């Protein structure tokens, strides 16, 4: 059983007529004019917030250092891990990657994961797209910076699912809707989980979200999986997001924090069923600026060649152009309880929401 990191349980308000405080805060941070003040947003890299406290990793949980290095991670003893008062089971790992290694995962998310037989949102918009990046990059490059041009295939890519494919219409997973979960992502998630005290974690499903600078992810609870005892592990790459973490109901005021390139977030315990969302992606301070971790010229430190996509170095310039205005988030979860069969769970309409781009949402 994993250590219940955190102090205090996630807040809950059972009042049927409670105000939707989460939505109010979401709209405040989403606003463009006037832009929200960010002085209350927690920055784990420079935070003096009294709610933030350091978490030590048990050395007994750390095994197979060679695999951790090969996957691009620093040794867990070098990780900066934090908890958040009032959010039992919440963990935040501040960018634990070796220099240059994040490029591998960005490349996988852009060039490999959206390929068939995996499922993307484009399946409903346009049939016959076997390789989104290959078929969409040329058009994207030609229209880069031309705001009056129609959205390209890559602009329209919002998500891809891996392993058990989430059914957005029925709000549930189906046993028969499954493709092989990527072995590299499985190894990465398993090692992170084990290092944090979740020894029997089995990655079975992931949603890769692609956020433009005008994208949001509405407030929701991830409660369609059949095993709540296992954490959701979230990997962030690219531009910075504001993330809201609330309570068991929307009547609880959420806490705002920055999710920056390379950060890893874990929601377990009470926090596993807390409302959360992304109201804003922050524009880089300089147009075309890549976040630290994606722009280094240094060679990758210790990342095994077998983990690299073919010709990644030669094509990184293309990926970098896309990441100048994009955030990628991978959320990994275990769907089925260990030793139990695949069942069904009743769902509500707010269980999962797709990331939406403001202009496109207005047109729908």
Defining traits:
globular; Jelly Rolls; five-stranded antiparallel beta sheet; 9 helices; alpha+beta; nine-stranded antiparallel beta sheet; 14 strands; 364 residues; disordered C terminus
Protein described:
The protein has 364 residues and is α+β, with helices and mostly antiparallel strands. A nine-stranded antiparallel beta sheet has the order 1-2-3-11-8-13-6-5-4. The protein has a five-stranded antiparallel beta sheet with strand order 10-9-12-7-14. It has one domain: Jelly Rolls. 21% of the residues lie in helices and 19% in strands. Residues 344-364 have low confidence and may be disordered.
Topology (elements, then pairings):
Layout: H1 21-30, E1 52-54, H2 65-70, E2 81-84, E3 90-93, H3 102-112, E4 119-120, H4 122-125, H5 132-143, H6 153-156, E5 159-163, H7 183-195, E6 205-212, E7 215-220, E8 232-238, E9 241-245, E10 255-259, E11 264-267, E12 276-281, H8 312-323, E13 326-333, E14 356-357, H9 358-363
Antiparallel strand pairs: 1-2, 2-3, 3-11, 4-5, 5-6, 6-13, 7-12, 7-14, 8-11, 8-13, 9-10, 9-12
In short:
The chain has 364 residues and is α+β, with helices and mostly antiparallel strands. Helices cover 21% and strands 19% of the residues.
CATH class: Mainly Beta
> What helical percentage do the residues reach?
10-25%
Mean pLDDT: 82
CATH fold naming: Jelly Rolls
Tell me the β content.
15-25%
Based on secondary structure, the structural category is alpha+beta
Tell me the overall shape.
globular
The ordered H/E elements are: HEHEEHEHHHEHEEEEEEEHEEH
CATH architecture descriptor name: Sandwich
Distance between the termini: 45 Å
Report the major sheet.
Answer: 9 strands, antiparallel
Quantity of strands, as a count:
14
């Amino acid at each position: 059983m994993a250590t219940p990191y955190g102090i205090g349980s996630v807040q809950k308000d059972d009042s049927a007529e409670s105000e939707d405080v989460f939505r109010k805060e979401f709209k405040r941070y989403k606003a463009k004019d006037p832009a929200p003040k960010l002085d209350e947003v927690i920055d784990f890299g420079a935070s003096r917030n009294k709610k933030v406290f350091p978490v030590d990793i048990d050395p007994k949980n750390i095994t197979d250092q060679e695999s951790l290095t090969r996957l691009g991670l620093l040794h867990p003893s070098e990780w900066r891990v934090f908890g958040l008062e009032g959010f039992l089971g919440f963990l935040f790992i501040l960018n634990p990657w070796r220099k240059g290694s994040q490029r591998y995962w960005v490349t996988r998310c852009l060039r490999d994961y959206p390929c068939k037989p995996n499922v993307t949102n484009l399946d409903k918009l346009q049939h016959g797209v076997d390789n989104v990046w290959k078929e969409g990059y040329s058009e994207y490059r030609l229209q880069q910076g031309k705001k009056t041009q129609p959205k390209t295939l890559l602009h329209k890519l919002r998500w891809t699912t891996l392993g058990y494919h989430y059914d957005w219409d029925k709000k549930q997973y189906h046993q028969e809707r499954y493709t092989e979960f990527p072995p590299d992502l499985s190894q990465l998630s398993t090692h992170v989980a084990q290092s944090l005290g979740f020894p029997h974690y089995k990655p079975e499903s992931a949603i890769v979200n692609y956020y433009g600078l005008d994208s949001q992810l509405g407030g929701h609870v991830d409660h369609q999986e059949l095993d709540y005892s296992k954490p959701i592990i979230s990997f962030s790459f690219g531009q910075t997001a504001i993330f809201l973490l609330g309570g068991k109901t929307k009547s609880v005021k959420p806490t705002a924090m920055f999710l920056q390139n390379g950060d890893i977030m874990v929601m377990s315990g009470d926090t596993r069923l807390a409302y959360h969302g992304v109201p804003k992606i922050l524009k880089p301070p300089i147009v075309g600026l890549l976040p630290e971790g994606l722009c280094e010229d240094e060679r990758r430190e210790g990342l095994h060649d077998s983990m690299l996509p073919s010709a990644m170095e030669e094509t990184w310039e293309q990926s970098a152009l896309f990441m100048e205005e994009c955030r990628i988030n991978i959320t990994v979860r275990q769907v089925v309880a260990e030793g139990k069969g695949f069942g069904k769970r009743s769902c509500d309409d707010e269980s999962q929401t797709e990331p939406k781009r403001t202009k496109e949402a207005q047109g729908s």
